[in-house]
# Entry
Amino acid sequence: MPKPKLTKTGIPYLDFAWNVTSGCSWAGAGCDNCYAKDLHDKRHKALKAGKAMPSCYGEPFSTIQLHEDRLQAVLTRRKPAVIGVCFMSDLFHPGVPSRFIDQVFAIMARCHQHRFVILTKRPKRMKQYIEGLFACARAEHSARAERKVPYDDDCVNVMLSHYSNLDVDRKWPLSNVMFGTTVWDQASADENIPHLLHTPAAARFVSYEPAVGLANLNQIDTEGGVYHALNGRVSVEGRGMAECAGLDWVVMGCEKLAGNNPGRPMEWDWAADVIIQCGKAKVPFYLKQLDVNGRVAENEFQGSGGLDCPDFFNLGGA
Ligand code: SF4
# Structure
């Protein structure tokens, strides 16, 4: 049987994509022109017409598929890499069972050489899952300690063992996993960013793409207060300012459709605001793509022409 392989990706900040699930569904206006759905639909149609295609295209995009056979792909790669997890779907889609996500986390816990990037439009479930992981690790640890049962080789147990060895009260997460959420306007930023900031994480980022409306990342309005996500502060009415987790990176880009055509318009002023705010807060910012005269231009507005990445991507020290 051939070894499972990682997929090459055109996303500039990733070395590979690790597509362990396929299929997804609409989670807001940011999904309106979903690239993954377009591609899947085309390949599904081609397969139905008799063309040779990988078997996952036999199902429509609306079917959530779990690719257990691809789980091992990151374990067999020794050379350090930055790997995007489920960038053509959503690991935290409600159709992905927690037991499968456990396996993904168990494998990431074993791959200290890699950096993993998880991006979701469902950060509420991500937060709940990670919190549950710590609760589960604690319970498993005390049960095993009481019965004097060592951890076995089952990969989920290895992960639980990893978590139980950490200072769970401080909620330290896996040091090689960065969590991100997508926002596309102010309402989605207000909805998604607080969940991200409350997710125990080694590093957090926001992908403001497709930018289809203005989003002020330092003015995230919630019932619980106003989050200044770039500064790592939250102001609660009558209680002043308190510290909260902040963002470690912001990626921004206009909507890109097939053939490098721009989709819904993005205003340059929205990017200018975020650039200024990130500069003040010393948060790395990466402008991924802009609509220039009716064509999408990628990464041409980055002073140095390179990627402004967070320290998390430094593959030197695991
Ligand atoms: S969450 Fe991502 S993969 Fe899923 S429908 Fe939306 S854009 Fe597509």
In short: The longest strand covers residues 285-292. Residues 1-130 form one domain. The CA atoms of residues 126 and 132 lie 10 Å apart.
